[in-house]
Each structure stands twice: as C-alpha cells, then as structure tokens.
C-alpha cells in the first residue's frame, strides 16, 4: 500500500510500504531462548542488532488481521517538487 503525504514548500513525499504479519511460534521462541543461553547472549545481541532476523527466527507468516507482530518495510521514498 502506498501512503501519500504533502510536505512543506509544496513537496510531495511518496512512500510505498510493505506490511507483513507474523505470529509467535512457541517452540521457535523456546529454541531461540535455549540458543541465547548456549551462545552466552550473542544471539540476543544479533536479534537486537537485526530485529528482522529475530522475527523470522521466532515467528511464522500469517494474515495481518491475525498477526502478533507487524514488519514494515519502506520500498520507495521519492520526493517530488510540485
């Protein structure tokens, strides 16, 4: 879905945002917790540094209406002078 916003000085900003929904999977969450303990917390540092990896490791894809977590990705950012 694309969001259109009008900015200052007659500049139009166009953002195309991709929204994905994810639902927690209990066994994946526990597996990541065990992995965090075995790696002495390095896995948590990785998930803090790259949150998308943490979501992909602990969740499964689902419709947005059923999602526990939403992942937003900005596809385009264009500034147009009117």
TrEMBL record:
It is found in: Membrane. This is Cation-transporting ATPase. The keyword Translocase applies. Its EC number is 7.2.2.-. The keyword Cytoplasm does not apply. It is a multi-pass membrane protein. The chain crosses the membrane at residues 30-49. It catalyses: ATP + H2O = ADP + phosphate + H(+). Belongs to the cation transport ATPase (P-type) (TC 3.A.3) family. Type V subfamily. GO terms for cellular component: membrane. One of its GO terms (molecular function) is ATP binding. Residues 17-73 form the P5B-type ATPase N-terminal domain. Keywords: ATP-binding, Magnesium, Membrane, Metal-binding, Nucleotide-binding, Translocase, Transmembrane, Transmembrane helix. Pfam families: P5-ATPase. Its main location: membrane.
């Amino acid at each position: 879905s694309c969001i259109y916003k009008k900015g200052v000085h007659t500049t139009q900003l166009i953002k195309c945002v991709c929204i994905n929904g994810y639902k927690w999977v209990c066994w994946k969450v526990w597996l990541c917790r065990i992995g965090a303990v075995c790696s002495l917390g390095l896995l948590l540092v990785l998930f803090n540094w790259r949150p998308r990896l943490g979501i992909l490791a602990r969740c499964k894809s689902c419709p947005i209406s059923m999602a526990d977590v939403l992942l937003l990705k900005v596809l385009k950012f264009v500034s147009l002078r009117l």
